[in-house]
Specification:
The N and C termini lie far apart (46 Å). Strands 4-5-3-2-1-11-12-13 form an 8-stranded mixed beta sheet, with helices on one face. It has a 5-stranded mixed beta sheet with strand order 6-7-8-10-9, with helices on one face. The protein contains 7 helices and 13 strands. The protein has one domain: Purple Acid Phosphatase, chain A, domain 2 (4-Layer Sandwich). A hairpin with a 5-residue loop joins β6 and β7. By secondary structure, the chain is α/β, with parallel strands linked by helices.
Length: 272
């Protein structure tokens, strides 16, 4: 019998329902092993871009089952759905509430000790996504192709008795521009949290889970459910944990925010 672990708050992002590579069975399993008072869905839960490409086999029964799970959960769990760029069709209706579910563009989360966290998906501070949507969508097609290659490569590795290896993640981690871009992204979000008079920021978007600190601002990224299979969990004391799913069991690793040497000047323009 499974022992469920309880969190005050769970944060999930970038599940990409409607995308072939979405690990929806794993995230469903993860939620079956945890309970929480508040579930924050931090954007790109539904991949509207992928669904708009016309193939009818992208939305699976398991994707519908995940939506049903959320509808069942909302009877006992407060659910806050922050829209992202892949589910930007929600832009027209946000803010909107039904039952115990809120659909919003951004959100302020208050910790037990009174600390305030600015919650957003993060796409509005990604210059490619916000200013060059066509380039972002082209990159999304390329990313899907890389995931296809990754899938074929790991089928061969499994046949050879070798463990899973993510080509796409390795390429992203080794690319200097990618790493520097992620650092700049994190700094912009931390600066925005300061502008909002918040103690920290919670986001997704770049598919890279992280808990760190920029100056006096906590930066928390919940990762994704395409490659990383990660979530954020806040316990009853307000401490944050980075939860990593693996196979049919998962481990939750606690991290102290890592101090950084970045100076965070005020943003030159508002992203409110």
């Amino acid at each position: 019998m499974d022992t469920k672990k309880h969190y005050r708050t769970l944060v999930l992002s970038d599940i990409h329902l409607g995308m072939r590579w979405s690990k929806v069975e794993e995230v469903t399993r993860f939620l079956s092993l945890h309970t929480c008072d508040t579930l924050i869905l931090c954007g790109d839960i539904i991949d509207g871009w992928n669904l708009m490409r016309g193939r009818k086999d992208k939305w699976k029964t398991r994707h519908t089952e995940f939506i049903r799970l959320l509808l069942d959960m909302q009877h006992t769990v407060r659910i806050v759905y922050v829209k992202g760029n892949h589910d930007d069709f929600l832009q027209r209706i946000a803010p909107f509430s039904f039952g115990n579910i809120q659909i919003v563009k951004d959100y302020i989360h208050t910790a037990p000790d009174g600390k305030r966290y600015y919650v957003l998906h993060g796409d509005t501070l990604d210059e490619v996504t916000s200013r060059h949507v066509w380039l972002s969508k082209l990159g999304d097609v390329a990313y899907n192709g890389l995931l296809w290659l990754n899938d074929r490569y790991n089928q061969w590795r499994a046949y050879m008795g070798k463990p899973y290896y993510s080509i796409s993640r390795k390429l992203k981690d080794q690319a200097k521009k990618s790493v520097s871009g992620m650092s700049a992204f994190s700094q912009r979000l931390a600066s925005l949290a300061r502008e909002k008079q918040c103690d920290g920021v919670i986001c997704g978007h770049i598919h890279r889970a992280e808990i760190s600190r920029y100056g006096n601002v906590d930066y928390l990224n919940s990762g994704d459910w395409v490659e990383s299979l990660t979530a954020l969990g806040e316990d009853e004391t307000g401490a944050w944990h980075l939860c990593r799913y693996a196979s049919l069991t998962e481990s939750c690793e606690s991290f102290e925010p890592i101090p950084t040497d970045f100076d965070l000047p005020s943003l030159s323009r508002s992203f409110a």
